Amino acid sequence: MFLKYLGHSCFYLKGKDFSVVTDPFTGIGYEMERVSCDYALSSHAHFDHNYFAGVDAGQIITESRAPFTAIPCFHDECGGAKRGRVNAFYFNIDGLNVLHLGDLGEPFSAKNAAKFSLPVDILFVPVGGNYTVGAGDAVKYAQSIGARVTVPMHYKTQNSKLDIAGKEEFLSLCGDYKIVENGLEITPNNIKELSHVTVLKFD
After folding, report:
1. Separation between Cα atoms, residue 12 and residue 24, nearest integer Å
2. Can you tell me the mean pLDDT for 128-138?
3. What is the pLDDT of residues 67-100, one digit of tens each?
4. pTM, whole model, 2 decimals?
5. Average pLDDT, rounded, for the chain
6. What is the C-alpha separation between 47 and 26, in angstroms, rounded?
7. Beta strand segments in 49-185, E
8. Pair type for strands 36-41 and 56-61
9. Number of neighbouring beta carbons within 10 Å of residue 11
10. Pair 150, 197: CB distance under 8 Å
11. DSSP bridge pairs for 64
12. Would you call the peptide bond into 72 cis, given omega within 30 degrees of 0 as the criterion?
C-alpha cells in the first residue's frame, strides 16, 4: 500500500484493489494536491473535511459502506452540543487494518476508547486540539488502541491558518518517534521497520 500525506487530516492510500482519500480539505491557508481515487471518505460535513470538488473520486463515503466501517463519535467534549458528530473510519487495504479518527473531540476515557477496540495496524489520530482532542488525549487514545504505527494529523503546519497547535507537544509526550519522507510503501512485511509513532514529512 502506498501512503502519502496531503495535509490536515487528508491522506492518499493506494492499494492493489482500490485507492482512498480521507477528509479532503480547502480553506485552511493552503490547498491539497489534487489526486484521483476510487473512494473519498469524509468524517463530517465541515469545509476542511469534505471538499469533494478537490478530488477526482469514483465514490463519496460518509457512512458505513463496504469495505469501510464508520464508527460514530463526537466532535467535542460535550456530546456533540458544540460541533455535532463525526465518523471514524476503519478499513483494510492490502492486508493492513487502518483506523482514521477524523475530528475526534471526545476526551479520552476507557468508555470512549472502547469503540476502537479493534486490530489496528495504522492509526491516524488528530493531535492539534481546539476542534479535536489535544496532545494528551491523543497519546492516551494511541496507547489504548495499540496500533503498530500511529501517524499524527490535524495539526498546524507552516502554511495553515487554523487556530490549532502543532505536532510538537504530541511528539514530546510520545517519546520515541521517527520523521520519514512523505510517500512510502507499507506492507504487512515491512511495517515493522517503521517507528511506533511515524510522522510523514509535509512542510
Report:
1. 10
2. 97
3. 999 999 999 888 888 898 999 999 999 999 999 9
4. 0.97
5. 96
6. 6
7. 56-61, 69-74, 85-93, 96-100, 122-126, 149-153, 178-180, 184-185
8. parallel
9. 22
10. yes
11. none
12. no
Q: Grid coordinates standing for 193? A: 521497520
| Residues composing the chain | 203
DSSP 177: -
Q: How is residue 203 written as a grid cell?
A: 512542510
pLDDT in tens, 12-36: 999 999 999 999 999 999 999 999 9
Task: List, in order, residues 6 or more apart from 89 with CB less than 8 Å away.
Answer: 22, 41, 43, 61, 68, 69, 70, 71, 98, 99, 100, 102
Give residue 80's pLDDT: 87
**Residue whose grid cell is 511515524:** 198
Give, for 110, the enclosing helix (H) or strand (E): helix 110-114
What single-letter amino acid sits at 145?
I
Cβ–Cβ contacts within 10 Å for residue 157, how many? 18
